[in-house]
Amino acid sequence: MNAEHNLFRDPDRIALITGTSSGFGLLTALTLARRGYKVVATMRDLSRQTGLVQQAEQAGVLERIHLMTLDVTEESSIAAAARKITEQFGRIDVLVNNAGFAVGGFVEEVSMDEWRRQMETNFFGLIAVTKAVLPVMRAQGEGQIINVSSVSGLTGFPGYAPYAASKFAVEGFSESLRQELRSFGIKVVLVEPGSFRTPIWGKGIAGMHTREDSPYQARLDEVLRYSRKSAETAPDPQEVAELIGRITGKSKPRLRYPVGKGSRLLIVAKTLLPWKLLESIVARSLKAMK
Questions:
Q1: What is the average pLDDT across 56-79?
Q2: 269-289 pLDDT, tens per residue?
Q3: What is the pTM of this model?
């Protein structure tokens, strides 16, 4: 207990978080700052910092928040941020790969440009930021990388194939990376949220890719009704931020941390039930939204 307490109360510990303008990233920045971290809170566009700054002021932790531009899809932006962090702080103890968004639509109707954009941010961007941080953590002989995945990285859902594919990729990447870094004292962790009240799903629903004469329209309507209902009843995203905070205090974190309503049940169901039965359950759930 004392060892974990000291881990997150050390005032010199540095946390780098991507995608902190809203949602899990913003709340995680505040949570780690309250736990004593110096938080490098990054976002693609610093004009979107207002919400984080206001809440940090209210929480009394603004002096622990260091805002920085970082676009995970631009290697030059990543390199500049990594260089600035190491010059200013000399180390990076925790990386929270949170930046991401959701592309929605049925596979046939999502353009290849949108598929690539989804993977560039959610997957390749995560890899690029990780690669930039690894030399620093190896030199330190310690570090922790927390990849914000999703239950969508464990089970696909109709209408969100691009998002699910990106998160499945994050899952496989993290499993491999964790094994590669064990001997260097670097821990790799997956946080797998279910549905929470964050902007990602509202944006995904609003930006659904379809067309007026879509052969998938009836099915898409079912998916949209289900998504809206899930968003309305979703729990507070602070639960995810608190979980990430607790993980940073663990000397031996496990690989996976599912969190949210039904997330653990979904994992157990996929492990134990035949896929045909799972498909039937999803189909019935969608029709029940009519």
A1: 98
A2: 888 888 888 888 888 877 765
A3: 0.90
**Residue 111 C-alpha from the chain's centroid:** 24
What are the E-state strand segments in 139-234? 143-148, 186-193
CA 169, CA 108: separation in Å to the nearest integer?
20
Judge contact between 123 and 148, C-beta under 8 A: no
Catalytic residue (choose from 37, 160, 163, 257): 163
pLDDT digits (tens, 9 = 90+) for 75-133: 999 999 999 999 999 999 999 999 999 999 999 999 999 999 999 999 999 999 999 99
Contact 226, 181 (CB under 8 A): no
Our answer to whether residue 163 is catalytic in this structure is yes
Burial of 45 (0-12, 13-18, 19+ CB in 10 A): exposed
- Pairwise CA distance, residues 94 & 99, whole Å: 15
CATH number where 154 lies: 3.40.50.720
Residues comprising the chain, all counted: 290
Which range of residues forms the domain containing residue 48?
2-287
C-beta of residue 200 within 8 angstroms of C-beta of residue 23? yes
Instruction: Count how many domains the chain has.
Output: 1
